[in-house]
Write a structure and sequence with these properties.
Radius of gyration: 21 Å
Largest sheet: 6 strands, mixed
Helix content: 10-25%
Structural class: alpha/beta
Distance between the termini: 24 Å
Strand order of the largest sheet: 3-4-6-7-8-9
Bound molecules: iron/sulfur cluster
Order of helices and strands: EEEEEHEHEHEHHEEHEHEEEEE
Length: 352
């Protein structure tokens, strides 16, 4: 189900997740159902940037990752179709990834194929825009893309290069493409700056003003400010202490008054609603047999295939040490259909 197709610095394997592989169970790739009408679609983990705040430790300079994944079109498309059968119509597919979706080689086909699914109402992409261009915007528009969620965290070219750990990054190009997208296409723009306290306080104001000035938010809200969080597996900005949620929301409400605009949204305003989840037979605490298929995203993790009462899914195993590739594993987390487990026993010659 995984085919090694290359490597980064000969240390990080790049896998193709081939047609026929399950669409669910992994955090890094496939489709994720979090119990609403929005499905997350993750076709790739690759990212060209090295953001100092990256919550998923992505990019060429990543130290925590030892594998990257590029899913075949079918893995994503079949997953969205399957979700539609159980969740009904009016779905939004958000291509959000733990990398940058614009690196996905078949992105245009993916948008087109997903948009043609009867139960899908809209398709959006979440990106930092490093690879965005007017030509790409045109192709995405033709393919049926409805919205781009663009993370721009400063309007300073120099600061952007430092924040994104990429001396080649051109903020001017990203801004030009974003403004073109708003003016010349029917794709909507939703701007999602990350607020890193003490690092881009003033920049956040500038980004909000820019987003409103150019006409972001034709159909969806124009701007959502994201809170910086120091994630366990992510990169931490040196010397920065994340704001508490209380302080963050108080600051957002002060900013709303200062800028005379709304910056926080409820699910209804965002077009989101709760929906029943895709039924899964596996739960935390269950014991399942799994076949190891390759490495997981972070050092030491492996991915196993579970075939449990006909339900095929991936599980990320935290303590597999090599040896037999069939194991008995205990599910230790099952949140949103993403399975994390620990090897309970190795299975030798089909005997537990
Ligand atoms: S924050 Fe996004 S764009 Fe930046 S390195 Fe991480 S995945 Fe890439």
């Amino acid at each position: 189900l995984f085919k090694a197709i290359g490597s980064f610095n000969s240390r990080r394997i790049i896998y193709r997740v081939v047609k026929g592989a399950p669409s669910f169970g992994a955090l890094a790739f496939g489709v994720i159902d979090r119990g609403t009408n929005v499905l997350q679609a993750r076709p790739t983990t690759i990212c060209p940037l090295n953001c100092v705040f990256c919550s998923v430790d992505a990019g060429p300079m990543s130290e925590g990752r030892w594998a990257e994944f590029i899913a075949s079109l079918e893995v994503i498309v079949d997953g969205v179709k399957y979700a539609g059968v159980h969740k009904g119509g009016g779905l939004e597919v958000l291509i959000d990834t733990v990398g940058d979706p614009l690196t996905y080689p078949q992105l245009i086909e993916l948008v087109k194929m997903v948009k043609e699914i009867r139960t899908v109402r809209s398709v959006a992409i979440e990106t930092h825009g490093a690879l965005l261009s007017k030509q790409l915007v045109n192709k995405l528009w033709e393919a049926g893309l409805d919205r781009v969620n663009l993370s721009i965290d400063t309007l300073s070219e120099e600061k952007a290069r430092k924040l994104y750990g990429a001396p080649w990054f051109s903020l001017r190009k990203v801004i030009e493409a974003a403004e073109y997208l708003v003016k010349e296409t029917s794709i909507d723009l939703h701007v999602t700056p990350l607020w890193i306290p003490g690092v881009n306080d003033e920049d956040i104001r500038e980004v909000v003003k820019w987003a409103l000035r150019i006409g972001a938010g034709k159909k969806w809200p124009p701007v959502t400010i994201q809170k910086y969080i120091a994630h366990k597996y992510g990169r931490k900005v040196p010397g920065v202490k994340p704001m508490s949620w209380g302080k963050f929301w108080r600051s957002i409400s002060e900013l709303e008054k200062e800028l005379g605009t709304k910056l926080s949204w409820n699910m209804g305003e965002w077009g989101m609603e709760y929906r029943k989840r895709i039924p899964t037979p596996l739960m935390k605490g269950d014991l399942v047999t799994a076949e190891i298929v390759g490495r997981g995203l972070f050092h030491g993790e492996y991915i196993g295939l579970i075939d449990y009462k006909g339900w095929r899914a991936f599980i990320t195993l935290l303590n597999y040490k090599g040896g037999p590739t069939r194991v008995l594993a205990r599910v230790i987390r099952d949140e949103d259909g993403i399975y994390i487990g620990k090897v309970f026993k190795y299975i030798k010659n089909d005997h537990i």
